[in-house]
Design goal:
The chain is α/β, with parallel strands linked by helices and about 350 residues long. The protein has two domains: about 5-130, Response regulator (Rossmann fold, 3-Layer(aba) Sandwich), CATH 3.40.50.2300; about 160-340, Methylesterase CheB, C-terminal domain (Rossmann fold), CATH 3.40.50. It contains twelve helices and 14 strands. It has a seven-stranded parallel sheet with strand order 8-9-7-6-12-13-14, sandwiched between helices. A five-stranded parallel sheet has the order 2-1-3-4-5, with helices on both faces. It is elongated. The termini are far apart.
Length: about 350
């Protein structure tokens, strides 16, 4: 079995010791070296060509994300940012993800507690997942501005839009939402895989980027248009028989809580053919089963294409399952959503 070759970028001796101890009994991960600063990180990446870079949160953010941008320009590779619980700066974390980091994970300590064992397993799992991600530079594309108004029929065929995303999702969500008009007629529910503690700052950032009011859904509230709703942290977001929000259990589905599939499947059960489901960039298979439920209920389903996805995982799984009716580049998704809302008649051809 080919081992996953990992380079560590961290300027604290304790972190190096912890990392070596954590990896001592992991047979499929090989520790290459540790870089203490940005210059050494670039040098060691060029020398060793690692499969994954695990970078300390503070080291990666200290130079305004310059290190990550240089890496993605010179030697693109999957980057995992590790941070302690005291380093929860949502704005900096979003900037690191935009600069090239694929994911963020808590930094486990070498302690024999249940909590630390869970943190260790999550850390190792993240390394294994992102090691298989194909990373490349993308040229920035201009995104059309949102139309000033959307002429729609009063008898809308669709009543709810559900969007799911994971790795690369924040920027993709912002790109789609800011192309939608302020009077977009459907309530929008977004399920974005995000680290614990970042939801509030993420919603603030997305509100500023998109112009839509973003908030966590409240139990028993009825979804309304001109708003973007997110599940509460560590809770599934579903719908009751009347179509109102139902804050579900904290049990994971497809390894996630909240889960894209959980929200999409519940929407299909309650709203039937009047749901539009969209799957954006992300790793794993969350959302594929939920999107299939929407399509089987007669709703419209759209998956982001491979070329415009940071990670073509979740959309690919939906396509393979036959859940996606349409496959579109990111830049065309908003225009398609607007088009769907211009007519009260379903096009099911």
């Amino acid at each position: 079995m080919k081992k996953i070759r990992v380079l560590l970028a961290d300027d604290t001796p304790l972190a190096l010791n912890n990392f070596q101890c954590l990896m001592s009994d992991v047979s499929d991960i090989e520790f290459l070296a540790c870089a203490c600063d940005s210059a050494q990180a670039l040098e060691l990446i060029a020398r060793h060509e690692p499969d994954v870079l695990c970078a300390d949160y503070l080291l990666a953010s200290r130079d305004g994300q310059g290190l990550l941008r240089k890496i993605m320009l010179r030697h693109p590779l999957p980057i995992l940012v590790a941070r302690s619980s005291a380093q929860l700066d949502g704005e900096q974390m979003r900037a690191l993800l935009a600069a090239g980091a694929l994911d963020c994970v808590g930094k486990p300590q070498w302690q024999f507690t249940d909590e630390q064992q869970h943190a260790k397993q999550e850390f190792i799992s993240k390394i294994r997942i992102i090691a298989g991600v194909h990373v490349f530079r993308k040229s920035p594309r201009s995104i059309a501005a949102a139309p000033a108004a959307l002429p729609v029929s009063s008898g809308l065929a669709y009543r709810l839009l559900v969007i799911g995303a994971s790795t690369g999702g924040p920027e993709a969500l912002a790109a789609v939402l800011k192309q939608l008009p302020a009077d977009f007629p459907l309530p929008i529910v977004c399920v974005q895989h995000i680290s614990d503690g970042f939801l509030h700052s993420f919603m603030v950032w997305l509100s500023e980027k998109s112009g839509f009011r973003c908030s966590a859904a409240q139990d028993g509230a009825r979804p309304t248009n001109k708003q973007v709703y997110f599940p509460q942290e560590k809770r599934q977001l579903e719908f009751d028989a009347a179509g109102r929000f139902l804050i579900g259990s904290g049990h994971a589905r497809d390894g996630h809580c909240p889960s894209v599939s959980s929200s999409m499947q519940s929407a299909a059960e309650r709203y039937g053919a009047s749901v539009i489901a969209v799957l954006l960039t992300g790793m794993g298979n969350d959302g594929a089963a939920g999107m299939l439920a929407v399509r089987q209920a007669g709703g419209m389903t759209i998956a982001q294409d491979a070329a415009s996805s940071v990670v073509f995982g979740m959309p690919a799984q939906a396509i393979e399952l036959g859940a996606a009716k349409m496959i579109l580049p990111l830049r065309d998704i908003a225009a398609q959503l607007i088009s769907l809302c211009r007519s009260p008649v379903h096009d099911l051809t």
